[in-house]
Predict the 3D structure of the following.
Amino acid sequence: MSASGGTRGRLILVDDEPAVLMTLEAIFAGEPWEVVACASGEAAVEAMGRGVDVLLTDKNLGDINGLELIRRARVIQPDVMPLILTGYASLDTALEAMHLEVFDYLLKPPRDIFDVQRKVRQAFERQAMQRENAALLVRLTEQNRQLERAIQEQRALQAELIQSEKLAGIGTLAAGIAHEVSSPLFGVMGLAEAILDEDDQALVRGYAREIVDYSRSIKEIVQELTRYSRSRGSDGMELVDLARVVEDGVRLVGLATKVPTGAITVEAQGPLPTRGHPNELQQVVVNLVKNAVEAAGDGLSPAPAVQVRAWADASWVWFAVRDNGEGIPEANLDQLFDPFFTTKAPGRGTGLGLNIVYRILTKHQGSVTVHSRLGEGTLFEVRLPREAAAP
Ligand SMILES: Nc1ncnc2c1ncn2[C@@H]1O[C@H](COP(=O)(O)OP(=O)(O)OP(=O)(O)O)[C@@H](O)[C@H]1O
Ligand SMILES: [Mg+2]
């Protein structure tokens, strides 16, 4: 790139002695640049108006001083490379030339004419390098700006992600708490409804006592929420009979869902000792049995049937729920335990039941497996570490 607009570069030679000017022109005849020879300062000013890259000028011209010419060249082309030729070197000229950042200072007549040629070539080379550097700098600055923009976008995105993850966390927590509260509440409502139809004072009293128990567990869950920041460990676990937990859980579901009598069968030979939170283990039972009842009672199976069984082997206590519902499509099996996975109509399921089951069992060092085929019903199997002593 040059001031003259081409890629060749434009050299302006200025000297008012025709012999010198001719010699200079002759030296640069073979060069790739556009060479313009000017016999006066005025002519040079006019030529420079059409562009100048390197200016080689005599210092003492008849009309305009060589140093003044350099000043004007700078206005036209800030990165012009000026060289000055002078017959008598004075310190003043040298200083002034330096001040003007003249590329080089040549004595006239030159001792070696090729020295002039070399210096002009160097001037063009230096200029090309400077221009390349400047272009590089522009590109670098632009890239830097782009990088900075990208970093900023990344940061904003990250902040947004953190925020939405926090929100999602809070949402999951809130929905989880709601779900946990809803199962004892479920019990309270079922028992309260049973009381409405019950005349037997002893039974009513028994139901009321259970309502008190369920209300207490709601209180515990709410209290747990306030302690949520602490990680929930294995503290507070007690010896539990899984058979009792299963029986209680099934009864709860029976009361609340009003399944036809005989639709749920329970086979649980206690004691089945394990260590855990009775409340939480009951939630496991309730969620699995409730799902089974919902699947079996979907109207697709002729006679809804849910079988619940609990037993023990040497190292584990087990509990299984089988239903004759529609079964689970294979594609859904991988997602069953994910929070919010549900195939139920909005308002009918939150998709948290199995996630809570999974979380509780993991915390109790237990596990859950599912066996299901479309049209063949579903079997959920749960196991928990067996404790040595009976409760
Ligand atoms: N016994 C079952 N038979 C058929 N499908 C089941 C059974 N148990 C679970 N599922 C499927 O797994 C999904 C997730 O169950 P999960 O208990 O987590 O949520 P939900 O029952 O949909 O809602 P919620 O339990 O919160 O009321 C159900 O929507 C259903 O598609
Ligand atoms: Mg459920």
Notes: Confidence is low (pLDDT under 50) at residues 1-5, 228-233. The pocket of adenosine-5'-triphosphate (ligand 1) is lined by residues 179, 287, 291-292, 295, 323, 325, 328, 336, 341-344, 349-355, 378 (CB under 6 Å). The two ends are 93 Å apart (CA to CA).
